TrEMBL record:
The chain crosses the membrane at residues 6-22, 29-49, 61-80. Belongs to the complex I subunit 4L family. Core subunit of the mitochondrial membrane respiratory chain NADH dehydrogenase (Complex I) which catalyzes electron transfer from NADH through the respiratory chain, using ubiquinone as an electron acceptor. Part of the enzyme membrane arm which is embedded in the lipid bilayer and involved in proton translocation. Its EC number is 7.1.1.2. Keywords: Electron transport, Membrane, Mitochondrion, Mitochondrion inner membrane, NAD, Respiratory chain, Translocase, Transmembrane, Transmembrane helix, Transport, Ubiquinone. GO terms for molecular function: NADH dehydrogenase (ubiquinone) activity; oxidoreductase activity, acting on NAD(P)H. This is NADH-ubiquinone oxidoreductase chain 4L.
Length: 98
């Protein structure tokens, strides 16, 4: 395993652990999701270069598009929950009360 693979795997693992264990604020969950998407984007960008296959070069752009949509939706949810509940703490959000 090369050093670049190890760094991408460790970045994805650390951000997923951060998402699993630090769930107090919505903004920290969104940042962990964005770091997971960034590590996946970089890994998918380097994969066709390593394998020398030009057919998979569209996949990172599709991933980047979904990541931008996810970020916009997450920020809209953050603004809406802050306006209605007064803070971005995840323990204040309950789907049964909506």
């Amino acid at each position: 395993m090369s050093l670049t693979h190890l760094s991408f795997y460790s970045a994805f693992t650390l951000s997923s652990l951060g998402l699993a264990f630090h769930r107090t604020h919505l903004i920290s969950a969104l940042l962990c999701l964005e770091s997971m998407m960034l590590s996946m984007y970089i890994a998918l960008s380097l994969w066709p270069i390593e394998n020398q296959t030009p057919s998979l070069t569209l996949t990172p752009m599709l991933m980047l598009t979904f990541s931008a949509c996810e970020a916009g939706t997450g920020l809209a949810m953050l603004v809406a929950s802050t306006r209605t509940h007064g803070s971005d703490h995840l323990h204040n959000l309950n789907l049964l009360q909506c």
